[in-house]
Amino acid sequence: MRKSGFLLLMAAALLWAGCRDGRRKLVEAAPLISTTYRDDAGRQFSLADPPDSVISLAPNITEMIFAIGAEDRLAARSQACDYPPAAAMLNEIVTYPALDLEQIQAAGGDLLITTDEIFTPDDIAQLERLGLPIYLQSYDSLADVYRCIRTLGELLDRREPARRLADSLQQIERAVSEAVTAFVKYKTVILISADPLKVVGGTGFLNELLVKAGGTNVFAGKPEAYYSTTVEELLQQQPEVMILPSTDPQVYAQLIALYPALYNTPAEVNKQVHTIHPDLLYRPGPRMIEGLAELAHLLHSSVTPDRFLPGKAEAAE
Amino acid sequence: MQRPPLLIPYLILIPAALLAAWAGLMTGSYDLAPGELLRILAGGPHPQADVVLSIRLPRLVQAFATGAALALGGILMQALLRNPLAEPYIMGLTAGAGLGVNLLILGIIPVAGYTLFTYPLFAAAGGALSLMLVIGLGQRSLHEDNARLLIAGVAVSAICTALSGLLIYLTADSDQIRQVVFWSFGSFGKATGAGAWTGMVLAALGVLASWMLGPALDVLALGAEPAASLGMRVARVRAGVIALAALVTGGVVAFAGPVGFVGMIVPHVARAWIGGTHRRYLAPACVMGGTYLTACDWLSRLLLPPAGLPIGIVTALLGAPFFIFLLFSRRRTV
């Protein structure tokens, strides 16, 4: 009897401790005043204060955070985040081949930021189960990129630097567009992938970059952002300029080895096949404008990037 | 059952092949009138002559050669294993070729300069090595029953598939994954003149060699023991049949990717329709395989122009219901 009374007492004590602990957690989890945000995927998340530590799982978002001077709030970044070089000092989260949820948990962030292009809905559902607020960005145009930079500024308490950055990127974009207005709009193709053959279609920010850089996208009529094509269709379009986003110096040789018929394009005949660093085009962030200036230069050699990016030219010197 | 004279299948198959070829040559981004196509094929000058002769024709030839070679591979494997459901895939050839291509795509074996034959060489080497392993493991069954050989084929196929998966998991970036996945779907989009005609020569040589082996295949199809009692050197013939099937199917799979079900469906239909000895139905079956794949390629481009659906998906969509039908009809006859 005495033993069962003791057990009962212990159980009651444990229950009380558990309830108290649970109540404490509940109070901590529910902020008194919180702001609710809606991300680009239509999901809602709430934040009481600007988060002290955020986790970025997309390289372009890490670049945005550094560019608005909020890197002190970065708790961790994905393994693909390799720019700026200072990002290497941050904790790394493995996202490929499989998302390491334990690393995310251990990083202890207040907010997780990524894009809707990198992870599957299953991955997002897994991330949601961690209980972290998640902010998903999505970009269909350059305007979306500027908007996302400004939103990041609001979230991370860097409203003014973010606004200035977005405004200056927009100004450079306008300056590049104006500089190429008078030039011939060459028929251009941006080749996304050789095998399978994929090119930039008529929608999305890559098409917009090409148009603003003073080119005519030969696949502008296609409704997809990334369009699967054939050698025959590519030949039919007769591109005068071919842009290959790659760091591999052999990329064009490999393309011709796969599709010898492409040796007859006007771009090849006029020696207008160019490579460009893929990160300058594929990462919708601050460096995308560097990509725009570089594209404008490839299409119109007299339009030099340092005209628009003086800081870049000084850094190079 | 009275077998039809061999002329009748040819009277049906040759026009069907020409029709499929015509449809394939007419389909593309440039619109051509039938007269224009005929003029180009006759060697006349035309602005799109290069497109027809260097893009559409190689694609057509490669599709036909691949279909013919896969049908031949199926016939050889079915005679060897005495199982109408067998095809080169079962013997680990496709998985071995896939592993070879993955080693190349993933950069595990670095290659200084790509040529037209880089992919096929790696695929053929992968297929040949996996085949040697299958023969090594199933050596005893070259003399006896085929169960051990079949199990060895399935095991080697599983090992190659697992190794490919492991390499992709550990080393691939998104571009490489796209390449690996796309190759595994099968496609004629990269067909070039040299590659296509190489496939055609391989298929033709394969048909010739198989025709010469015809009587041996008939005896082999009776089983190892009866064949041995009839004086056949079973192990030697079996090894020769496997090597021939590997060479022919490995060569075309390397260019087009693994295209499934052709090697299973076509020999079955040819046997049911034409029947008789291997020599009788071998060549019509290869024409049938070539026509079938040419038509599938045309259909794929019709369904999703201009790039087309991956050919492996089309053949699987058409072949899988036939496979199920075959399974059920076999169950009823048991």
Write structural notes for this entry.
With 317 residues, chain A is α/β, with parallel strands linked by helices. Chain A has 13 helices and 13 strands. In chain A, the strands form 3 sheets. In chain A, strands 8, 9, 10, 11, 12 and 13 form a 6-stranded mixed sheet that branches. A 5-stranded parallel sheet of chain A has the order 5-4-3-6-7, with helices on both faces. Chain A starts with a helix and ends with a helix. Chain B is mainly α and 334 residues long. In chain B, 75% of the residues lie in helices and 0% in strands. Chain B contains 13 helices and no strands. Chain B has helices at residues 7-26, 34-41, 49-81, 93-105, 118-137, 147-171, 174-185, 193-220, 224-229, 234-256, 262-273, 278-303, 311-333. The longest helix of chain B is centred in the N-terminal third of the chain and has 33 residues, at 49-81. Chain B is globular. The model of chain B has no long low-confidence stretch (mean pLDDT 87). Chain A binds chain B through residues 97, 193, 195-197, 228-233, 235-236, 250, 253-254, 257-261, 264, and chain B through 28-30, 50-51, 54-56, 113-116, 118, 169-170, 175, 178-179, 182-183, 187, 189-190, 192, 306-308.
The number of distinct β-strands of chain A equals 13
Number of helices of chain B: 13
| Rg on CA atoms of chain B, Å | 20 Å
Largest sheet of chain B: none
Give the oligomer, counting copies of the same chain as homo and different chains as hetero: heterodimer
Low-confidence stretches of chain A: 13-31
* Average of per-residue pLDDT values of chain B: 87
SSE ordering of chain A: HEEEHEEHEHEHHEEHEEHEHHEHHH
Q: What's the number of extended β-strand segments of chain B? A: 0
Strand content of chain A: 15-25%
> In percent, how much strand structure appears in the residues of chain B?
under 5%
Q: Give the biggest sheet of chain A.
A: 6 strands, mixed
